[in-house]
Design a protein that fits this description.
single chain, alpha/beta, eight-stranded mixed beta sheet, three-stranded mixed beta sheet
Length: 438
């Protein structure tokens, strides 16, 4: 059974090198790694070719495409029975790959999702610090769940889903070939939205009967200063402002048009956009989405932004509201929305400052979690993160199923190793050789 890792990229060679290092370290002869370079002007091609790994295939679009088109380009080039998509600043966990393959081969799920570990690349421009990785006992060596997609879709439609709920994923998740083909057959494209990952997590529910979800980390989902998502969420200079501006400008070259095209100030607007696009393209507009709830969340987010951002966001919502059954109520809600009060803004700023303070905390240990600050070790890349997580968790053996029999010693051993790394980091000691790579 072949597994494909699909990587769309554009001018992020410094991060791509780290991702490919984690991919190349995977011991699997039936793996293909496809990189679709969106006409980069940096040394992306040289980075890819430097690995000398026959499993890695390099594609170049030849001209600038939209992000969605590059996603489409790379997935169309895959040949695997399962496809996993990754951002170019992310990483995989080579030591956990055998478990991923075992789950796919033994269960043959329509979609496999897992509990990724999140990582913020350190950068001087970011007040959040970054460079730390957390592992939680409850989200490690946990059970495997089978979740009906009817239940997942209902939670999306009724706006009861949270960011921690299970969904069919292809971005840091694995999708079976027939699900991908069915989506393409329906609309002519796999990704019929400028927000491919969110769109897929909604649209795939029409073609996958259930999702297999495992409480165990199998990859690292990272945020770098050049991430499009980071720039979209923090538009006030914290990320690469050019990333979101290029993303928006290149949408004009795309034949697929979203319900709310263009740049939007709040991440909630992008979610609404993807949900409605999936409703139109896949479900023929038949989903009775709880848009009053989604609009209320977006308006709350907009209320704390600048007047220009707030008005632009409200204009996007008005345009969509005009096409929806709840038109009058939605338009009224938009007009009644007001800027955040001075007291609420002060409380929000205090809460954000507290969160930033917590993110600046060095390595720490609690009863069921440890956080390792890699910076004192001189480590920062997702390849470093992957080696650190694999060092703590230990390598999985082909065919082994940690979920089959609850073994508390697995987390106990991981916690012991993680605690040791925390102490070394705090005391500025040299890390174990296993963390340093070649």
């Amino acid at each position: 059974m072949r597994i494909s890792i699909a990587i769309p990229t554009r001018e992020r060679a410094i991060y791509l090198k780290s991702l490919l290092a984690t991919c190349s370290a995977i011991r699997d002869d039936d793996l293909e790694i496809i990189v679709s370079d969106n006409a980069s002007e940096d040394n992306t091609r040289e980075v890819v070719e430097s690995f000398g790994d026959s499993r890695i295939r390099y594609l170049n679009t030849g001209r600038r495409l939209s992000m969605r088109q590059n996603f489409e380009n790379v997935i169309n080039a895959t040949t695997g029975d399962y496809v996993i998509m990754s951002g170019d600043d992310d990483g995989f966990l080579p030591g956990q790959w055998a478990y991923l393959r075992t789950l796919l081969e033994q269960e043959r799920p329509a979609c496999l999702s897992w509990r990724s570990r999140y990582y913020l690349w350190p950068d001087a421009r970011q007040p959040d610090g970054g460079g730390r990785i957390k592992l939680y006992g409850p989200h490690t060596y946990g059970p495997v769940y089978r979740v009906p997609t009817a239940k997942i879709l209902s939670s999306i439609v009724e706006a009861t889903a949270s960011g921690h709920d299970v969904a069919p994923m292809i971005y840091h998740g694995a999708a079976r070939r027939d699900v991908i083909d069915a989506m393409r057959a329906k609309t002519g494209e796999v990704f019929s939205s400028s927000i491919p990952d969110v769109y897929f997590s909604v649209a795939a529910n029409a073609f996958a009967g259930e999702v297999l979800f495992v409480e165990h980390p199998l990859s690292v989902q990272a945020i770098s200063p050049k991430s499009t998502g980071f720039s979209a969420r923090f538009s006030s200079g914290r990320g690469d402002s050019g990333a979101i501006n290029r993303f928006t400008a290149e949408l004009s070259t795309d034949t697929v048009v979203d319900p709310m095209p263009g740049k939007m100030a709040a991440i909630e607007l992008y979610y609404i956009n993807a949900i409605e696009q999936a409703n139109r393209m896949i479900f023929d507009g038949k989903l009775a989405v709880a848009y009053p709830v989604y609009f209320a969340r977006a308006l709350k987010s907009l209320s704390g932004m600048s007047e220009a951002e707030r008005e632009a966001g409200k204009a996007s919502l008005r345009g969509l509201a005009e096409t929806l059954p709840d038109r009058e109520a939605l338009l009224a809600a938009i007009e009644q929305s007001r800027p955040m009060s001075v007291a609420s803004r002060a409380l929000r700023d205090f809460d954000n400052a507290l969160k930033r303070f917590r993110r600046f905390q060095p390595s720490l240990i609690t009863a069921s979690m440890f956080q390792i600050d890699l910076k004192p070790f001189g480590l920062s890349s997702t390849a470093d993160v992957a080696r650190t997580i694999d060092y703590c968790l230990g390598a999985r053996i082909a065919g082994a199923r940690p979920d089959a029999a609850s073994d508390p010693s697995l987390w106990r051993d991981a916690f012991r190793r993680g605690r040791g790394l925390c102490y070394r980091s705090i005391l500025r000691c040299k890390p174990p050789a296993a963390l340093l790579g070649d």
